[in-house]
Every structure is written in structure tokens, then in C-alpha cells.
């Protein structure tokens, strides 16, 4: 059972003044990470990497960070870690966006069916949500991988579909809240057609903030799934880098004391997931007023 | 449990059992659909084919497949040739031990942080603890596993770590705490648990009846316990079971833990349909049972809910 916490929307002060400074720190860090990921993705797409990420350099194996020419050092084959980390973003960036898009569109449709149409739709949507929540996500993904093939886009379709219940609940909860305030009744009394009420008044004016928040949290989830799968060997294969397979490949050297080749991608995962999560939660506190003084 | 709560609980139990059965039927449809749509006709490999007199239609195949699953006949593993269900029961116990231990550990860390934060508000210490919970939750569990392995091998000389045979050695249970430690802290559930418990508890502590209790000098915690702690705690525990089972796939891989997650990984490698199908069904059943338990606790605490 999910419950909806909805604070009174009585905000007298401008956003930045009533904000909890901690939330601003969360959001600031999150935005910085999102910008860094986006810029790195573009750099990787355009191929402006400092080194060839697949080029080995036997003379310079396991170089420490800040080695001249290799800002983040090199791995156990002498490959430049900075270039590999940047290129590793390719493994999850577009697939993650696909998963988010599926969750947002499918979840909104289900949420509107449950909240706006109500009745049998509500029961059906809650059954569907409970059904999807019954599967551990990774187990369902492994089932799909076994049945079809280890393709990241198949995986992200599963991630997107299993992300729909959260969005549906959120949209349905918003609609219930608006109904309680006679908002929807008023819109109908004005003679607005249903699609205007749904698209403009419900989704755009009242749901865009929580949907953006869910999208950032969904990206954190997608990154976690992608890195976990490529760690498990079902994702991008060596020598093409992905953060998960970099941790995995480096782990053979970890127990010999060469921590850096698998620690660098692990820290990248940590910082990125943390960034998307803090951005989502910080925005949630700022815009949805969930934090109590 | 109060006597007044007994009747609603039994009524809700019946209703929730029916819902659980319906959802498990849905789970079976989803698993069947994936197997049905998969290339290479995995259903034939599972023994559902025309040769057994099963009609070619999808509903005929579903009926035949589901009848076999209900009888506990999940087929035999392609890899080992052993029947799947006894194997699942054997390794499922290991996974249950791992996940329940991890859940207990996560609670043991999250509850003090959440309660302290709810009772005292945004002090520097609480903020630091909340941020620490965020960071720990974002640590990739597979990398954290290597760190723990390294520390335990090099600093404490505890080796061999976990394997199927280690459980029979002296003090072997000590080693088994290591994967529990890893899954319990770094599975990504910690920060959500802290946040949920804290939000719910501080919401309840702000209620009028708590203010009344406080004013007349009654113990506040006793009044806030059910609504502010018991219900949110069971809620978040049941909601996090699927995440823990998913995290177990990775932790079992890192520590070579003979559980369901490792079995699922191996099965996905080999396209071993009977095994991966069995793991998915059993894992979903675990999740539904956890949810059922949560609903029962919820109704026992709050009998009004049975009239919803």
C-alpha cells in the first residue's frame, strides 16, 4: 500500500527563501552530476576522448591518478581510465532514457485510467501494479535474458514496464487530491473537454514536477541495473567499456592490491547514482513540500 | 492482539489469501507469456508439446504447463539434470537466510537513525547520518563486496570465505555474516528505509493525540508505536523484499553463495529454462507472502482497515 503525502500548497515565500539549505545542496550536487554525465556522453559520442579507450600501453600499467597524460591513471592493461569511464556512459545513457520514457508514458496512462476513469479501471490498474511489484526486477530481467537474448534494450523495456506502477500511483494520487479540492469538477463545469483537463490541467500543471522527480530517480535505477548486469556479464562485453564490466575486470587485480582499476568505475557509479537520487529527493522536498520543519 | 481485532484479521486473511492466489496466477501468466514468446520453443523443452497430447493453442499450452507447475513439476535442469523444485528448496533456504539477515541488519541501522531524527529534528548529527545513509545506499554492492573480502582476508586472515563447504567448518556461521553485512548495508534499501520511517514517525508525532498524550504525561512512545513505527516498518520491509532478492543475485555471485540468485545467474547463462522459470515463480511467491504478512499486521493493528 502506498500512501500519498500531500502538504498544503500554501507557499507565501519564494522557493529559494523557504527552501531547506540541505535540499539546495542535494539539488546542486545532483544538477552538477547530471551536467557532467550529459557533457561526458556528448564527448563520448563525438569521440573527443583524451586517448583511445581500447589502446593498451604495456609500458604504463596500473598508473596512479594524475600521471602526466592520464588524469585518472590507467588500468591493468595500460588503457586510459578517463577515456574508458567517459565511453562507459554510452552503455546506459540512451537505454536509461528509453526506460524512463516507457515508465512515464505507460505509468501516466495507467494513473489516469485509475484516477480519472476510476471504478473497474482502478481495480485493474492496482492489480497490474501489484503483479509487477511481485517480481524482483533482476530476476525478471534474468528470465527475459534467458528467454530472448542479453540485449540492453530488452532489459530496459523490462525496467521501464516495472517502473510504471510508481508513476501510476503518483498520478492517480494527484488526481484524487485534485478531486478532493473540487478542481476537476470545476474544470468540467467550465466546459473543458476531457483531454484538455487530463493533458493540461492534470499532467502538465499538476504532475510535471513529480514526474520529473520520478524520471531522475528512474535514471538512478536504470544505471544501477545496467552496471549490475554488465558486472554479471550480461551487458556490454569487453573490450568495450561499461562501468559494470570495468569493476568486474578490475576485480581480478583487486585482491592483489591493485584497487584503482575497479575502484575508479565504482566511484563513478557511486557518485552518479547518488547524484540522481539526491536530485530527485531534493527536488521532491523543494517542490512537493514533503519535508516538515 | 486485542480480542476486537481477531475477527477482522481472520476476515482479512481470507480476502488477502484470495488476492494473493489471484496475483500468483497472474505471475504464472507473465512467466508463461515470456516462455511462450521466446524463440526456440522453451515450452517444448519443458515437456509441454503436441507429443504429450497438448493442443497447439496458447491457452491449451498454458493449461498443461500450469497444471504441471501446480503439481510441483518444474521439470529438470538442462545443466545438471536434477529436478528443479527440490534444488530450489535446497538453495532457497540459503537465500532466505541471506535476505532475512540483511533485512534485519538494515532495520538495525535504519531504525535508530530514523527514530532519533524524527524525535530531534534536523540536528547536525541527524543530517550527517541521513547523508551517510544516502552514500552507503549508492555504493555498488559488487565493489563493496570486494572491499569486504579484501579486508577480511588481509586484515583478519579469515579465509576461506563463503562456499558450500564452509558451512560445515568450525565457526563457519561467522563467515556467513560477511555477505549479510554487504547485502544489508549496500543494497540500496538503507536510505529509503531511513526516509520512510522518519517521515511516517514524524508525521505521527505531530498528530493531536500525541500532543494530548504528551500533555497528560502519558508515555508518548507507547502511543506512537503502532501507527508511527510498526505499520511503516512492516510496510517498508515488505516493499523491499524484491529489492533484497534482486541484490542477492549479485551478492551471491560475489561471495559464491550457493543460493537462488546464483542459480538464476547460472540459468540465464545457460538458457536453462526450467531453473530460471522456477526461480522467478518462487521469488514472486516469497514477495507475495511478505506482502500478505504485512497486510495481516496492518489489519491487526488497525482493525478499521478491514472494512475498507
Q: Which regions of chain B are unreliable across 5 or more consecutive residues at pLDDT < 50?
A: 162-168
Rounded Rg of chain A:
22 Å
Oligomer class: heterodimer
Provide the succession of SSEs of chain B.
Answer: HHHHHHHHHHHH
- Strand elements of chain B, count: 0
Average pLDDT over all residues of chain A? 87
Shape of chain B: flat
Q: Main β-sheet of chain B: number of strands, strand sense, barrel status? A: none
Rg of chain B over CA atoms, rounded to whole Å, is 23 Å
Distance between the termini of chain B: 20 Å
What share of residues of chain A is helical?
A: 55-70%
Helix residue percentage of chain B: over 70%
Largest interface summary? A-B, 50 and 66 residues
DSSP helix count of chain A? 12
Q: How far apart, in Å, are the first and last alpha carbons of chain A?
A: 26 Å
> How is the biggest beta sheet of chain A arranged?
none
Shape estimate of chain A: elongated
Q: Name the beta content range of chain B.
A: under 5%
Number of strands of chain A: 0
Please tell me about this protein's structure.
The complex is a heterodimer of chains A (293) and B (308). Chain A has 12 helices and no strands. Chain A has helices at residues 15-18, 21-46, 81-88, 93-117, 120-133, 137-147, 152-162, 164-180, 183-189, 194-232, 243-254, 260-288. In chain A, helix 5 runs antiparallel to helix 8 (164-180) and helix 10 (194-232) runs antiparallel to helix 12. The two termini of chain A are 26 Å apart. The model of chain A is unreliable at 1-10 (pLDDT under 50). Mean pLDDT of chain B is 83; it is low at 162-168. At the A-B interface, helix 5, helix 6, helix 10, helix 11 and helix 12 of A face helix 1, helix 5, helix 6, helix 8 and helix 10 of B.
Q: How are the secondary structure elements laid out?
A:
The complex is a heterodimer of chains A (293) and B (308).
Chain A: H1 15-18, H2 21-46, H3 81-88, H4 93-117, H5 120-133, H6 137-147, H7 152-162, H8 164-180, H9 183-189, H10 194-232, H11 243-254, H12 260-288
Helix pairs in contact in A: 2-3, 2-12, 4-5, 4-7, 4-8, 4-10, 5-8, 6-7, 7-10, 8-10, 10-11, 10-12, 11-12
Chain B: H1 6-37, H2 42-45, H3 58-70, H4 84-120, H5 124-138, H6 141-154, H7 172-186, H8 190-205, H9 208-215, H10 220-255, H11 260-270, H12 273-301
Helix pairs in contact in B: 1-3, 1-12, 4-5, 4-7, 4-8, 4-10, 5-8, 6-7, 6-10, 7-10, 8-10, 10-11, 10-12, 11-12
Amino acid at each position: 500500500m502506498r500512501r500519498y503525502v500531500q502538504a498544503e500548497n500554501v507557499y507565501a515565500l519564494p522557493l529559494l527563501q523557504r527552501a531547506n539549505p540541505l535540499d539546495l545542496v542535494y539539488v546542486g550536487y545532483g544538477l552538477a552530476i547530471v551536467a557532467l554525465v550529459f557533457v561526458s556522453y556528448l564527448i563520448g559520442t563525438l569521440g573527443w576522448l583524451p586517448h583511445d579507450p581500447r589502446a593498451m600501453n604495456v609500458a604504463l600499467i596500473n598508473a596512479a591518478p594524475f600521471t602526466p597524460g592520464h588524469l585518472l591513471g590507467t588500468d591493468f592493461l595500460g588503457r586510459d581510465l578517463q577515456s574508458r569511464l567517459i565511453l562507459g556512459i554510452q552503455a546506459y545513457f540512451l537505454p536509461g532514457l528509453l526506460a524512463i520514457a516507457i515508465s512515464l508514458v505507460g505509468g501516466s496512462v495507467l494513473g489516469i485510467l485509475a484516477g480519472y476513469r476510476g471504478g473497474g479501471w482502478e481495480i485493474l490498474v492496482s492489480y497490474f501494479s501489484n503483479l509487477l511489484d511481485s517480481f524482483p526486477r533482476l530476476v525478471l530481467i534474468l528470465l527475459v535474458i534467458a528467454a530472448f537474448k542479453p540485449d540492453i534494450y530488452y532489459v530496459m523495456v523490462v525496467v521501464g514496464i516495472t517502473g510504471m506502477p510508481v508513476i501510476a500511483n503518483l498520478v492517480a494520487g494527484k488526481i484524487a487530491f485534485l478531486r478532493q479540492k473540487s478542481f476537476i469538477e470545476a474544470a468540467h463545469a467550465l466546459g473543458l473537454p476531457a483531454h484538455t483537463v487530463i493533458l493540461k490541467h492534470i499532467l502538465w500543471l499538476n504532475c510535471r514536477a513529480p514526474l520529473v522527480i520520478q524520471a531522475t530517480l528512474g535514471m538512478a535505477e536504470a544505471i544501477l541495473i545496467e552496471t549490475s548486469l554488465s558486472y554479471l556479464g550480461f551487458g556490454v562485453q569487453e573490450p568495450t567499456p561499461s562501468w559494470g564490466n570495468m569493476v568486474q575486470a578490475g576485480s581480478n587485480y583487486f585482491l592483489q592490491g591493485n584497487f584503482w582499476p575497479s575502484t575508479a568505475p565504482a566511484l563513478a557509479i557511486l557518485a552518479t547514482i547518488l547524484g540522481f537520487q539526491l536530485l530527485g529527493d531534493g527536488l521532491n522536498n523543494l517542490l512537493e513540500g514533503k519535508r516538515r520543519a | 492482539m486485542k480480542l476486537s481485532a481477531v475477527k477482522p484479521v481472520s476476515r482479512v486473511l481470507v480476502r488477502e489469501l484470495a488476492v494473493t492466489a489471484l496475483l500468483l496466477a497472474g505471475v504464472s501468466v507473465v512467466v508463461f507469456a515470456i516462455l511462450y514468446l521466446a524463440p526456440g520453443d522453451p515450452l517444448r523443452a519443458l515437456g509441454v508439446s503436441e507429443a504429450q497430447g497438448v493442443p497447439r493453442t496458447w491457452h491449451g499450452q498454458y493449461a498443461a504447463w500450469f497444471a504441471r507447475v501446480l503439481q510441483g513439476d518444474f521439470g529438470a535442469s538442462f545443466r545438471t539434470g536434477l529436478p528443479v523444485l527440490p534444488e530450489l528448496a535446497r538453495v532457497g533456504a540459503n537465500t532466505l537466510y541471506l535476505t532475512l539477515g540483511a533485512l534485519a541488519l538494515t532495520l538495525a541501522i535504519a531504525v535508530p537513525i530514523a527514530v532519533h531524527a524524527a524525535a530531534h529534528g534536523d540536528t547536525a548529527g541527524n543530517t550527517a547520518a541521513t547523508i551517510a545513509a544516502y552514500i552507503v545506499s549508492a555504493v555498488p554492492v559488487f565493489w563493496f563486496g570486494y572491499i569486504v573480502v579484501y579486508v577480511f582476508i588481509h586484515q583478519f586472515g579469515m579465509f576461506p570465505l563463503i562456499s558450500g563447504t564452509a558451512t560445515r567448518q568450525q565457526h563457519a556461521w561467522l563467515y556467513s555474516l560477511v555477505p549479510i553485512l554487504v547485502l544489508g548495508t549496500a543494497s540500496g534499501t538503507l536510505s529509503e528505509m531511513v526516509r520512510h520511517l522518519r517521515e511516517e514517525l514524524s508525521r505521527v508525532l505531530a498528530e493531536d493525540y500525541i500532543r494530548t498524550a504528551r500533555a497528560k504525561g502519558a508515555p508518548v512512545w507507547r502511543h506512537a508505536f503502532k501507527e508511527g513505527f510498526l505499520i511503516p516498518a512492516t510496510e517498508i520491509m515488505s516493499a523491499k523484499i524484491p529489492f533484497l532478492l534482486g541484490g542477492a543475485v549479485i551478492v551471491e555471485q560475489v561471495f559464491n553463495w550457493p543460493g537462488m540468485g546464483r542459480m538464476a545467474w547460472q540459468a540465464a547463462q545457460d538458457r536453462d529454462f526450467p531453473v530460471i522459470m522456477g526461480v522467478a515463480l518462487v521469488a514472486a511467491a516469497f514477495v507475495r507472502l511478505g506482502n500478505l504478512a504485512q497486510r495481516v499486521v496492518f489489519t491487526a493493528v488497525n482493525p478499521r482497515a478491514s472494512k475498507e
